[in-house]
């Protein structure tokens, strides 16, 4: 079991049913964990990180559930800011997960 598996299982325990995101090198382990848990959590692939954050925000606003989005590290994480700021302004519950580049 990997850290990504533990994270996905925690999200499932929290009642998360849908997650929006864009895979990339810094988050591939998380994407693999999503694949292995696809019976319990639905992954919606988006074309841009901002779309992931906006979709998670809209999901949270309309369902009242936790909206979850993810992206790879650095520029991907920064691209989510507009959607996350929208969630902040409207007090929508959104969790953003970002990857991290390998450091030695």
Q: Layout of SSEs?
A:
Layout: H1 3-13, E1 18-21, H2 28-36, E2 42-45, H3 49-63, E3 67-71, H4 75-79, H5 81-90, E4 94-98
Parallel strand pairs: 1-2, 1-3, 3-4
Helix pairs in contact: 1-2, 3-5
Task: Give keywords.
17% strand, 5 helices, alpha/beta, single chain, Rossmann fold, 4-stranded parallel sheet, 48% helix, 104 residues
Summarize the structure.
With 104 residues, the protein is an alpha/beta fold. Helices cover 48% and strands 17% of the residues.
What would your notes on this structure say?
With 104 residues, the chain is of the alpha/beta class. The protein has one domain: 3-Layer(aba) Sandwich (Rossmann fold), CATH 3.40.50.970. The protein has helices spanning 3-13, 28-36, 49-63, 75-79, 81-90, and strands at residues 18-21, 42-45, 67-71, 94-98. Strands 2-1-3-4 form a 4-stranded parallel beta sheet, with helices on one face.
Describe the biggest sheet? 4 strands, parallel
**Can you count the helices?**
5
- Share in helix: 40-55%
Number of strands: 4
Silhouette: globular
- Measured by DSSP, the beta-strand proportion falls in 15-25%
End-to-end separation: 23 Å
Mean pLDDT: 95
Radius of gyration: 13 Å
What is the CATH superfamily label? Thiamin diphosphate (ThDP)-binding fold, Pyr/PP domains
**Secondary-structure element pattern, one letter each:** HEHEHEHHE
Stretches where pLDDT falls below 50 for ≥5 residues? none
Structural class: alpha/beta
Q: Give me the CATH architecture, please.
A: 3-Layer(aba) Sandwich
CATH class: Alpha Beta
Strand order of the largest sheet: 2-1-3-4
Under CATH, the topology is which? Rossmann fold
The protein's oligomeric status is: single chain
């Amino acid at each position: 079991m990997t850290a990504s598996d533990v994270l996905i299982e925690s999200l499932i325990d929290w009642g998360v049913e849908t997650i929006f995101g864009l895979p990339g090198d810094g988050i591939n382990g998380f994407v693999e964990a999503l694949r292995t848990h696809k019976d319990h959590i639905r992954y919606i692939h988006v074309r841009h990180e901002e779309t992931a954050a906006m979709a998670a925000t809209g999901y949270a606003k309309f369902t009242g559930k936790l909206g979850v989005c993810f992206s790879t590290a650095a520029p991907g994480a920064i691209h989510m800011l507009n959607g996350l700021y929208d969630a902040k302004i409207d007090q929508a519950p959104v969790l953003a997960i970002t990857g991290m580049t390998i450091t030695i």
